[in-house]
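USER: Fancy drafting a protein?

ASSISTANT:
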Amino acid sequence: MALTGAVRVTGSGQAPAPPRGPRRGDGRAASAFLLPGAIGFVAFTAFPILASLVMSFYDWPVLGTPDFIGLANFTELFTTDPVFKTALLNTAVFVLLYVPVNIVVSMSLAVWISPRIVGRRYYRVLFFVPAVTPMVGNAVVFGLLYTPRGLIDSVFQTLFGVGAPNFLGSSTWALPAVVLMSVWQGFGYNLLVFSAALDAVPPSLTEAAAIDGAGPVRQFFSVVLPLLSPSLFFATVLTLISSFQVFVQPYILTGGGPGNSTTTLVMYLYQSGFQNFRLGFASAIAWVLFVIIMVLTAVQFLGQKKWVHYDQ
């Protein structure tokens, strides 16, 4: 039954208990739940980051006594080390090729897999499979496709009567070949992001644009694409960060060759630290890469105010 006024009672005649406020001991209980995660963060994230910063100022061999050398590692990187400059250039070229191609391919396929397509869920699974398969296995398969007398070379012989370029043995073709394999490996994740964003676009907006005389292309660029800008920003940031950290693809396909034409910053970091055993020098490379990624990410976040629209 109900009493007159603002308070209602239950069927038993008792008023519901007011919400419980914080009590003594709640903070200790919360800390206990947070402690395992905090220990893991400190042990496996915060401490290694700080340790690598300290090591970058040392000549730190794997065996032996570290020797403090200040900024000598960074000075060597930017003045006397030609491999670092080549690796930096290769990484920049990889990013400039990979990021736009990945975004365009994933966006185009997401638009194509519209609700009007029969079996769109199966296409989503099909296109997402490369993103969840082992990258090493994919690189090995692409290595077999790229080799002379492989599948690509056979197709060239059949269609054009000439052999395909030696993709992995040519300093001109090796990096584009790595980019192509990387796009095939990584576009599926962004495709799902864009596909979900497209499903959230109200059909009434495109219908209104069609009534006003806008064609499909004009509808996409004037109506749909602005609504996809938050998802586009998210995908671009993550894709840019991951592309600067490329390692497995060139390591398996070319080993950084021919010469140093596919050596990236992370690969050079690996070679310096775990092949040449210069841990301090490798830490300096890691911090240069960290600063580059942080600066570019900050620029993206500052620039989003001009083109990302969160209100629909």
